[in-house]
Amino acid sequence: MTRDPVRETVRHLLRQNGIAMRAASLAMGRNASYLQQFLTRGSPATLCRNDREVLAGMLGCSPADLWPAEPVGPEVPADRSPARAGAPLAMVSEVEVAAAAGGGAITEGEPPEIARWSMPEAMLRHEGGAAPDNLRILRARGDSMEPLVGEGDRLIVDVSRRVPATGEMAVLWDGLGLVVKRVEAVSGSDPAELRLISANPVYEPYAVPAQDVHMVGKVVWVLRKA
């Protein structure tokens, strides 16, 4: 099979950024199987200009990286139909707060913004089920959630989700510090308690009074470097 640098680049960057082909296709304003067909069936032969721009913004590369050095035939013009025009990028704030295994501090009010990330709005809304304005990006600290979350990973957090739900991963104040944990209600506890669970088996689950918990938001995505 002939080596295809563009498709190899797309596959590598999708894995590196932890983005599913379905999510990327929807963010491009295409049907859910569009990118899979491009990568596995060679259809379309090349990506149009608008697709390259949206996908490059998602993968953190240049649109030129997604155009073959020797393209087959003329470039397909960008589709500017209303359906395709509905795939804009949204800006998401990274804030100066770290979520850890314990300790740390929580800032009153809105913490300072340290960066802004450009992300596909369709992916955030359809895959994450969140409005871009409700999302914040936090840097993770510690190893209590390994292998799911590692030191320096970014957490995309929906700060409109303030009520802990069993099984969800959340960033919350546990009475001592800001942490990222799986949440589970303690059955029959009076007063009500929540069990906070780490992914790393080195760290034992622990229970805290529900009234002491302040939930910052639900973790929607984890962004990590390969």
What characteristics describe this protein?
single chain, 226 residues, alpha+beta, 434 Repressor (Amino-terminal Domain), Umud Fragment, subunit A, 6 helices, elongated
Account of the 3D structure:
By secondary structure, this protein is of the alpha+beta class. The protein is 22% helix and 27% strand. It has two domains: 5-85, 434 Repressor (Amino-terminal Domain) (Orthogonal Bundle); 89-223, Ribbon (Umud Fragment, subunit A). The protein contains six helices and nine strands; from the N terminus they run αααααββαβββββββ. The longest helix is centred in the N-terminal third of the chain and has 13 residues, at 5-17. The radius of gyration is 20 Å and the shape is elongated.
What's the gist of this structure?
This protein has 226 residues and is an alpha+beta fold. It is built from six helices and nine strands, in the order αααααββαβββββββ. Strands 2-1-3-4-9-5-6-7-8 form a nine-stranded mixed β-sheet.
Q: Could you give me the name of the CATH homologous superfamily of the largest domain?
A: Umud Fragment, subunit A
> Which overall shape is indicated by the principal axes computed on the Cα atoms?
elongated
Radius of gyration: 20 Å
- Helix content range: 10-25%
CATH fold naming of the largest domain:
Umud Fragment, subunit A
List low-confidence stretches.
Answer: 72-86, 101-108
Beta strands, count: 9
Terminal residue distance: 27 Å
Order of adjacent strands in the largest pleated sheet = 2-1-3-4-9-5-6-7-8
Number of helices: 6
Q: What CATH architecture of the largest domain would you give?
A: Ribbon
